[in-house]
Amino acid sequence: MNLPPAPIRWRPVAIPFLVAVLVLATISPSIAIYCDEDDCYDLLGVTQSANASEIKKAYYKLSLKYHPDKNPDPESRKLFVKIANAYEILKDEATREQYDYAIAHPEEVFYNTARYYRAYYGHKTDPRAVLVGLLLILSGFQYLNQSTRYNQAVAMVKKTPAYKNRLKALELERSGGNTNKKKSQKNADKKIVEDLSNELELQITGAEKPSLWKLLGVRFVLLPYTLGKMLLWTGCWFWRYKVKKCAYSLEDASYLTRRSLGIPDDRWRNIDEATKEDLVLRRLWEKSNLERYVAEMRKESKRRR
């Protein structure tokens, strides 16, 4: 069963463009989109083989003759506009190359027209500016998200009984066991509570305090420095522990232990020193020691159940 062809639906945006193309095609398709019915080279009085210096010299010579400030004749003004347009096209290597291609291939009307409009009316925003703007926007959202999560987490912690008890204990410790409830001390008490609250605001796992150094934009700017520092650190590590076979320092042994256990840096800092020292002495970066430690932890977990 043969179906009738579907009707063609013209988009409103495409209609002006097609009309312009049809109008230009009735004139001289190759050059009309650049210098109307004229030839850009003829307007400047140069040949197609002229170099950039000759084109520039011809333009300045004609501008002295037809510039509105030099020649008040209205026809000279119109001619100068055409000359200036021709110079704008031919002075740039990219647009001149497109114009030369249009002259050599007059049958490719649609292709030449699309190149012309893309070159002169296309979006010309610098990609670097777009990248900087994108990084700023993402960094702003990142900081806002981190700040919101941190403030919500701190607010929840402050509502817990453990936090309130710790706050009271710290206040008693500062006041020597005496609490003054006089009205004259009301402002001072608020200041003490605020100071104590700031002291008790610990880093919360999963909702760390926002930091400018952790923002995406700052990290991108510091990327060359970060890569250089990482390469230098890797080289020193290889020389010290692979070539010279030195014993691991406490800091490097802690790093190896933390990496073997998969513990983030912020959680590692919150572990008490005795536990850290015990973990480091176990040399968990060695596979056999790590497997033994994991087996012990599993047994301990089953025993507690």
Automatic annotation (TrEMBL):
Gene label: ERDJ7_1
InterPro entries cross-referenced by the UniProt entry: DnaJ_domain, DnaJ_domain_CS, DNAJC25-like, J_dom_sf
Ranges for domain J: 39-103
Pfam families assigned to the protein according to its UniProt record, in alphabetical order: DnaJ
SUPFAM superfamilies: Chaperone J-domain (SSF46565)
Compartments, record wording: Membrane
Keywords: Chaperone, Membrane, Signal, Transmembrane, Transmembrane helix
Protein's recorded name: DnaJ protein erdj7
Topological category with respect to the lipid bilayer: Multi-pass membrane protein
Residues in the signal sequence: 1-32
Location, primary (coarse class): membrane
Source species: Stylosanthes scabra
